[in-house]
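To whoever is on call:

I kicked off a structure prediction for a single chain this morning and the downstream step that reads the tokens threw a length-mismatch warning. I double-checked the sequence; it's 334 residues and nothing unusual in it as far as I can see. Pasting both halves so you can look.
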Amino acid sequence: MGALRLSRQVGESLADGLTGKGAPVAARRLAKLLAADAVALADCDRVIAVAGELDPAAAQNLLVETLDVLEPVTAPPLRASPLIVSGDLAGCLIVAGDVSDGELAEAAHLVATALDHADLDRARERIAAADLRTLRAQISPHFMHNALAAISAHTRTDPERARELLTDFSDYLRYSFANTGDYATVADELQAVQTYLELQRARFDDRLDITVRIAPEVLPVPIPFLVVQPIVENAVRHGFETKPGTGHIAVRGFSEGALCVIEVEDDGAGMEPETAKAILTGSRQGAGRIGLANVDRRLRAVYGPEYGLWLDTAPGAGTKATVRIPRYARGVHA
């Protein structure tokens, strides 16, 4: 009965994952369950939690070796087993003491199962937090009015362009309100953005200069639906509506190792850095600004707090918005 209770408590301790605050408690309970001299839990980079005394250098070396061969490794007095969660490598379990092969395997399975359950629970919370209905409801009536006005203005002076713009407007609305799931590819998002920008160019009488440069390797990367468009809309609406003359918007997408980076940079009005920070935290929304807080919150909910949206800006110096997400994330599929 005690072993069953400890097994359940190990799972409860890992409810926040390997990097959660319960990991040290899980290590202690595993040590007690296995009657081991020491137990360590590690992610794919380093030891996270230790119960008992371990040589840190020896544990790190064993971690690297175990993750390299993807099978249990013995390096007396330590033994280790990889943690495979839903087919993906999540980390490593390291033990010291008189623990059999079968006990090590069962303990690794127990930890992996607990991590899988924790991931599923967090995924449900993320899906609830990443509700697209709020963002769809914020598709700017201001933009729609101006887009239709621009199309109407071209019906007599340039009917062919008016037809093209009307097709663009239809395509934009179809994508924005599509019921295709929570994720799209970067390619899909950017196609919608280019359509949006063409409509804005017509509205600004071609005073809006647009540059789009996307590296091919990031085009198929899945990304939460309607992430890029609100950023671009913010650049147009708050960067250029009150600024005379020609404006420029650059949209760039590229990879940085395992990351996909998307930048939207304008040479518009800019803002105080404190204002940008307040907008992202949601403490200052302002007209049309809520889209940025929504984007940042959704990115962090899906990928974790280390990812999201960053704003680099100053008054009169324009704004650069940067999105950083993993190119490959378990459970994220377009």
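Update from on-call: the warning came from a stale cache, not from the record. Cleared it. Sanity check on the structure: The CA atoms of residues 87 and 330 lie 10 Å apart.
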